[in-house]
Design a protein that fits this description.
The structure is a homodimer.
Chain A lengths: L5 H16 L6 H14 L4 H4 E3 L3 H10 L3 E4 L2 H6 L2 H5 L5 E2 L5 H10 L3 H10 L5 E5 L3 H12 L7 E4 L7 H9 L5 E4 L6 H16 L3
Parallel strand pairs in A: 2-3, 2-4, 4-5, 5-6
Antiparallel strand pairs in A: 1-6
Helix pairs in contact in A: 1-2, 2-11, 4-11, 7-8, 8-9, 9-10
Chain lengths: 208, 208
C-alpha cells in the first residue's frame, strides 16, 4: 500500500476518476461537480443521473460570491459542507430540522419537519441555495412555495435518496424555473448534497 | 404523489427494498443492516459488497448494550448516528478529526489526522466500536494498533469510500481477528457508516 497524505490521495483519486470517465464529454464546470460526487460515492452512476440546468454552476457560484446562504434538510449535510470556505463570502449553512418550532409546526399541520423547515427557510431575509439530500417532502414543499411566490431560491441542489416519492419530487424540480443540480432517480444523499456544495466552493477558489 | 409521513415513507421504502431483494437468502440480523444501507444509498451493490464476520451484529449490539462508545473518522457520520438512542445504553459518539492535538500529532509525525485520531481513540478508557466512513489511513492505523496490542476494538465498521488504498485497507480488516462489517471494494461513506450504526441501534429496540 502506498504511504500518501490526504491531499496526495485526493489528487490521485481525481486522476483515477478522470481516467475511468474516459472520453465522456463534459462541460468543464459540470465535470468538476460530477467528479467530486463520484469521489464521494465511488459510484459512476452519477454520470448518467446528475442533471444540470443551464449555467447552473456559474449561477450558484455567483450567488455564493454575493453572500448567499445554504439551507439543507439534514444535519449530516450541514456537517459535511465546508462552512469555513462559505464564510469567506459571508454565507452560512442552516439546517432547521432539529428546531422546536419546526417540529411544532409540522405536528400542527400534519406535515413533515422537512417541509416545515423549508417554510422556515422561505422567510429568511437572505439569498438561499437549497441543498436537499434526504427528504422528498422538502423538495415538494419548496416547489409549492416557489409556485406561491413565497420563495425565490438562487438554486436548488435536489439530491434526496430513496424509494418513495423521491423520483417524482426530483422531476418536479427538473421542470421548474430555477437553477438546479438534480440527481435523477433514486440515488443521492446528504453526502452527495455536501459534495456538490463543496465542489461549488472549491471551484470558486480557482476562479476568483 | 402520495401524501405520506416520514414513518410511513420509511415503512414503504423497506417494503420496496425487501421486494427488490427478492429471494436473496440473508441472515435476519445481517438483512436488517443491509436494508438500512440500501435505504440510505439506494444502491443494491451493497448486497454483494457488505461482508459480516460471524455473529457480528449480535456481538456489536452486546457491546453497545454494555455501554460501548462509537469512534468515527468524520463529523458527518457523527452527525448521522442516533446519539440519543446510543446514550440509552450509556454510550457516546466521538470524532477527534477536528481536535487540535490530533492535528498537531499528525503534523509532527507526517501522518494523517485520521490516523492520529485513531491513536487518540486507542487510549480512551472505554470499550469502542470503530466506524470508519472516510479515511483508509484510519483503518490502516487501527490495524497496526491492533497488531501492536494497543487497542482491542469491540468491532470495526470499515466502510471508507474511495479510489486509493481503500480496497486494500478493507481487505486488511477482513483478515483481522475482530468482529467486522466491511463494505468490500471502493464504495462506502460516512452515510453508510452512520446507517450501519443506526441499524445496530434500531435492531436492539426490538430485541431488548
Amino acid at each position: 500500500m502506498q504511504k500518501l497524505l490526504p491531499e496526495e490521495i485526493e489528487k490521485r483519486s481525481f486522476e483515477i476518476i478522470t481516467k475511468e470517465l474516459g472520453g465522456i464529454l463534459l462541460d468543464e464546470e459540470q465535470a468538476f461537480v460530477m467528479k467530486r460526487v463520484i469521489h464521494t460515492t465511488a459510484d459512476f452512476d452519477y454520470v448518467e443521473n446528475l442533471c444540470f440546468s443551464e449555467d447552473v454552476v456559474k449561477k450558484m457560484q455567483e450567488a455564493i460570491r454575493n453572500g448567499a446562504c445554504i439551507v439543507t434538510d439534514t444535519q449530516m449535510a450541514k456537517a459535511g459542507i465546508n462552512k469555513k470556505e462559505l464564510s469567506k463570502y459571508g454565507g452560512e449553512v442552516f439546517c432547521f430540522m432539529g428546531d422546536e418550532d419546526v417540529a411544532a409546526k409540522a405536528k400542527e399541520k400534519g406535515s413533515t419537519r422537512a417541509a416545515a423547515s423549508m417554510e422556515k427557510a422561505a422567510v429568511l431575509e437572505k439569498e438561499v441555495i437549497f441543498a436537499v439530500g434526504n427528504a422528498p417532502t422538502a423538495l415538494m414543499r419548496l416547489h409549492e412555495l416557489m409556485q406561491e411566490g413565497v420563495v425565490f431560491p438562487k438554486g436548488i441542489i435536489g439530491v434526496p435518496v430513496g424509494f418513495v416519492n423521491v423520483v417524482e419530487a426530483k422531476e418536479m424540480i427538473l421542470k421548474a424555473e430555477v437553477p438546479y443540480i438534480v440527481a435523477r432517480g433514486r440515488k443521492g444523499g446528504s453526502n452527495v448534497a455536501a459534495a456538490i456544495c463543496n465542489a461549488l466552493l472549491y471551484g470558486m477558489k480557482h476562479r476568483v
